[in-house]
TrEMBL record:
Pfam families: MaoC_dehydratas. Belongs to the enoyl-CoA hydratase/isomerase family. InterPro entries: Fatty_acid_synthase (IPR003965), HotDog_dom_sf (IPR029069), MaoC-like_dom (IPR002539). PANTHER family: (3R)-HYDROXYACYL-ACP DEHYDRATASE SUBUNIT HADB, 3-HYDROXYACYL-THIOESTER DEHYDRATASE HTDX-RELATED. This is Bifunctional enoyl-CoA hydratase/phosphate acetyltransferase.
Length: 141
């Protein structure tokens, strides 16, 4: 993807949607990379014992998908100078062929005095928001 230029971006522009399928194998790989081996992310029995409906994706895995949406749109991961979220609901990942699904969208919601763009990210799974106040600041060329 080519680098996006700030002059070509307007407040209200929509980012291309991103749909991320999540399997149990993805969670095991993420656990290995992150060092987060909490069994709620791979063991259904443990997840249910603590009141969860099933195994859930790591919150930071979910958050990273929002950053991926913005970085892909910007054309350069280094263009994302700030990113923060609130975790509102977990992404449930059943042990079947479908697994879980995270549906992400974004919108340029502002232009800051320092020239950065404010991008609001929406992340949903099973029809419900899984991230809240997901906002990135992006510095484009």
């Amino acid at each position: 993807m080519s680098l996006r230029v700030a002059a070509d971006v307007e407040v209200g522009d929509l980012l291309p949607e991103l749909r991320v399928s999540v399997s149990r194998a993805d969670l095991v790989r993420y656990a290995g990379a992150s060092g987060d081996f909490n069994p709620i992310h791979w063991n259904e029995r443990v997840a249910r014992a603590v009141g969860l409906p099933d195994v859930i994706a790591h919150g930071m895995f979910t958050m990273a998908q929002g950053a991926r949406l913005v970085a892909d749109w910007a054309g350069d991961p280094a263009a994302v100078v700030e990113y923060g979220v609130r975790f509102t609901r977990p992404v449930v990942v059943p042990d079947d062929e479908a697994g879980g699904l995270i549906e992400l969208s974004g919108k340029v919601s502002g232009r800051e005095d320092d020239g950065t763009l404010k991008v609001t990210v929406t992340a949903r799974s099973r029809g419900q928001a899984v991230l809240g106040r997901a906002i990135a600041r992006v510095r484009l060329a």
